[in-house]
Design goal:
Length: 134
């Protein structure tokens, strides 16, 4: 009987682990080394390259570039360029080709589409519990 209860508890722990991990705040890991296309409400477009070291390069349609930095803080994806910081709500990780609508700290709404992303980290292995013998 004890082995059955232990197996049920372990099964329950595994069943609840996946939804809990899915709700973790995004860290920006998927963006490191990749480019996201941003379309603004006025039709302006930019491409933002998120370097692994926290620097960012923003390229406009004419090819003009601006250098800055990026970070993820409190469910916000923040870009700092020339001393000005703007942050966008960031509730879930980016997926390649999936367009997300993000609202900035300046109340601007824009469409963000990642060209490619890093794979999601593998979920942590659930602890193995040994059943009692009896």
């Amino acid at each position: 009987m004890r082995k059955t209860i232990t197996a049920a508890v372990v099964g329950s722990a595994i069943a609840f682990a996946a939804p809990a991990m899915a709700q973790m705040a995004p860290t920006g890991q998927e963006l490191r080394g990749h480019t996201v296309d941003v379309l603004f409400a006025d039709g302006a477009r930019n491409a933002v390259y998120f370097a692994p070291n926290g620097t960012a390069t923003i390229t406009g349609p004419s090819g003009a570039r601006a250098a800055g930095t990026w970070a993820v803080r409190n469910n916000n994806l923040c870009l700092n360029v020339s001393g000005a910081t703007e942050c966008w709500t960031y509730a879930r990780r980016f997926e390649a080709g999936d367009t997300m609508t993000l609202k900035s700290s300046c109340d601007a709404v824009s469409q963000w589409t990642a060209r490619s992303v890093n794979a999601a980290p593998a979920p942590a292995a659930a602890p193995v519990m040994q059943g009692e013998r009896g």
